[in-house]
């Protein structure tokens, strides 16, 4: 199956079965005190929210309103601002939160090829890998179909068919399709997508493909891209670091291999103030040797 970026305990909590323990109540009380009265104790919030893993943060997010009658995200929005404030809001969310049908929401917000891809992703059509079904012979057939629906199609591209293939295929099998495509065409599936698509749909499709083929390298490259060029994409950097915290140990190793530095090194160079301190703590949970601010 595709990379699970949240621990199993988080999914159980989301389904209404959170396993609280005494420390969670203590964390909630400390957050409440840090935001009580005049001013906010940013140092305390960094020490509480920044040092917790995805499971602990989810439990805190669920427990806080039960104890203090207010959603933690709403409290962080009220008490903090700027990049630091946005980061605290993300850390205050349950790891998986949405308030309406996601397919309906996405369908109302995007269009064209990007909509086709996102809807295919949200339908949860990925198959469970079965060696008896996902064979080399079938991979060759799907690779040929990928060519016929894409680069080899005389008029236009059947984007929906391409998206169905990369969304349905489990990672192990998608690698087999990619190998078969390279053997037949001397280029890989990413090259084919770049030939067939453009704009946001192209970027999203390539990202989805590579999250199945080489997830840790793909996340590492995403983090690096938020710091490329003039200025830093603080929103993108924050989202990536917090969303992928559960796998940041593997991502950091990939980042070192690709770019010769840790994610923490990049954060030290690209950010500042309490925002930098908070992100470094989030990374340190997964990579203890993260540098100090």
Automatic annotation (TrEMBL):
<dbReference type="GO" id="GO:0005886">
    <property type="term" value="C:plasma membrane"/>
</dbReference>
<keyword id="KW-0041">Annexin</keyword>
<dbReference type="InterPro" id="IPR037104">
    <property type="entry name" value="Annexin_sf"/>
</dbReference>
<dbReference type="GO" id="GO:0005509">
    <property type="term" value="F:calcium ion binding"/>
</dbReference>
<dbReference type="GO" id="GO:0005544">
    <property type="term" value="F:calcium-dependent phospholipid binding"/>
</dbReference>
<dbReference type="GO" id="GO:0001786">
    <property type="term" value="F:phosphatidylserine binding"/>
</dbReference>
<protein>
    <recommendedName>
        <fullName>Annexin</fullName>
    </recommendedName>
</protein>
<dbReference type="InterPro" id="IPR018502">
    <property type="entry name" value="Annexin_repeat"/>
</dbReference>
<comment type="similarity">
    <text>Belongs to the annexin family.</text>
</comment>
<dbReference type="Pfam" id="PF00191">
    <property type="entry name" value="Annexin"/>
</dbReference>
<dbReference type="GO" id="GO:0005737">
    <property type="term" value="C:cytoplasm"/>
</dbReference>
<keyword id="KW-0677">Repeat</keyword>
